[in-house]
Design a protein that fits this description.
24% of the residues lie in helices and 18% in strands. By secondary structure, it is of the alpha+beta class. The chain has one domain: Glutaredoxin (3-Layer(aba) Sandwich), CATH 3.40.30. The strands form two sheets. The chain has a four-stranded mixed beta sheet, sandwiched between helices. Strand 5 and strand 6 form a beta hairpin. It is globular.
């Protein structure tokens, strides 16, 4: 098993860029297509806490049923939010990456460099043409 785990959505450019950066660093991560194989509630809570986020901060609002489900209501508990994520995994923002150096929600994708065992990936060109120089 790889020492890097990535919760990935192949339809997401940020997620694809993050995966490419990991691979350019010389690592082949264990990739979990989280929409097909959603993490359980305990895993979600661990990912979010290890990344230094709140569950609410880890919600994806764009292109999801976030608004239609009324998830902007501050009275909703983490249990309520977890229930909705279980019903609609797209609500969990991505990509989450776990390495021996830590866990990050990699938005933007270059945040993965903070936790890669070898962050010196050199020049990287994102799908949108943006250039990342990581010595």
């Amino acid at each position: 098993m790889s020492r890097i785990v990535m919760y990935h959505n192949p339809e997401c450019g940020t997620s694809r860029n993050t995966l490419a950066m990991i691979r350019q660093s010389g690592e082949e991560p264990t990739v979990i297509a989280y929409l097909d194989t959603p993490p359980d509630a305990a895993t979600i809570l661990r990912l979010v806490a290890d990344a230094g986020l709140t569950l609410r901060a880890a919600l994806r609002t764009k292109d999801t049923p976030f608004a239609a489900l009324g998830l902007d209501d501050p009275a909703l508990s983490d249990a309520d939010l977890l229930e909705k994520i279980a019903e609609h995994p797209i609500l969990l923002n991505r990509p989450f990456v776990v390495t021996p150096k830590g866990t990050r929600l990699c938005r933007p994708s270059e945040r993965v460099l903070d936790i890669l065992p070898n962050p010196h990936i050199g020049r990287f060109v994102k799908e949108d043409g943006a250039v990342i120089e990581a010595p």
